[in-house]
């Protein structure tokens, strides 16, 4: 699936990978501190164009560490973001079977949904590899 489109990264060892949608204040910044081989894909609309398929917004890959970051930039509904992230993981699992998946939600509203039982169960199921932030998230990948 990933072979059919090019990475959004301008450089193979890009230092900072920014995931952002037009018109939204939400942004995820992945900092490539070790100068690893990285790739970025827009899932929603580029990789998966079927509007009936629930999916997240971006995928950032650190190919040397074999980490896959699924990123959802959300207005308010964090619980819907969980479904989008999980569906995207299922679609990419076979292609990225040696990769560890990390789930990121950047929401425009400060919500109590991260304290919900659904969010807690999702986080436990994925071994705590789930993070949510309001408006901006920056992390070393």
Describe the fold and architecture.
- A hairpin with a 4-residue loop joins β4 and β5.
- The protein is of the alpha/beta class and 141 residues long.
- The strands form 2 sheets. The protein has a 5-stranded mixed sheet with strand order 3-4-5-6-7, covered by helices on one side.
- It has helices at residues 78-92, 117-125, and strands at residues 16-20, 27-31, 38-42, 58-62, 67-74, 100-107, 130-134, 136-140.
Question: Gist?
Answer:
The protein has about 140 residues and is α/β, with parallel strands linked by helices.
Explain the layout of strands and helices.
Elements lengths: L15 E5 L6 E5 L6 E5 L15 E5 L4 E8 L3 H15 L7 E8 L9 H9 L4 E5 L1 E5 L1
Parallel strand pairs: 2-8, 5-6, 6-7
Antiparallel strand pairs: 1-2, 3-4, 4-5
Descriptive key words:
33% strand; alpha/beta; single chain; 141 residues; 5-stranded mixed beta sheet
List low-confidence stretches: none
Distance between the termini: 23 Å
Written as H for each helix and E for each strand, in order along the chain, the element string is: EEEEEHEHEE
DSSP summary: helix tally: 2
Strand line-up in the sheet with most strands: 3-4-5-6-7
User: What is the number of E strands?
Assistant: 8
- Principal-axis shape equals globular
